[in-house]
Amino acid sequence: MLPEQLKLVKKGVVVETAPLSHEIEEKVRRRQVEIEGFPDFNFSLFALLKWAQETNLLPSEADSEAIRKPRNNMAHPRFFNWVVPPSAAIDMFEILIKVVVKLWPE
Fold first, then answer.
1. In terms of domains, do 27 and 67 share one?
2. Together in a domain, 23 and 35
3. Cβ 28 vs Cβ 6: under 8 Å
4. FRET pair for 29, CA 20 to 30 Å: which of 19, 47, 66, 106?
5. DSSP code of 38?
């Protein structure tokens, strides 16, 4: 959903125009530049979920915190074996399906 060429801004001035790449992502993550029009976006899951909620990409019943917490617990476990009930996975798949339908409606 981003433009093909991103305008990268530093202190309010466009310093570079380039397509999205790993190098651009790293510059944004390190706060060396910002993407014009997306000053708070830093490629973190939190920023991505916030953007998805603001653009109505997430279904209204989807709680970004309810998505972020289980993902973070699975990606950064404090315990060796973290088990969730099957219903939790089904809930996540239902949200995922709704997001995919919004992205590709046909």
1. no
2. yes
3. no
4. 66
5. B
Question: Are residue 60 and residue 99 in the same domain, yes or no?
Answer: yes
The boundaries of the domain holding residue 18 are 1-43
- Judged on CB neighbours under 10 Å (0-12, 13-18, 19+), 61 is exposed
Closest CA to 66 of 97, 37, 45: 45
Can you give the pLDDT of all 106 residues of the chain as single tens digits?
A: 777 899 999 999 999 999 989 999 999 999 999 999 888 899 998 898 888 888 888 887 788 887 888 788 778 777 666 677 788 778 888 888 888 888 888 8
Contact 20, 27 (CB under 8 A): no
The answer on 37 and 52 residing in a single domain is no
Helices 64-75 and 86-103: crossing angle in degrees, nearest 10, is 120
Report residue 16 as tokens: 């570079």
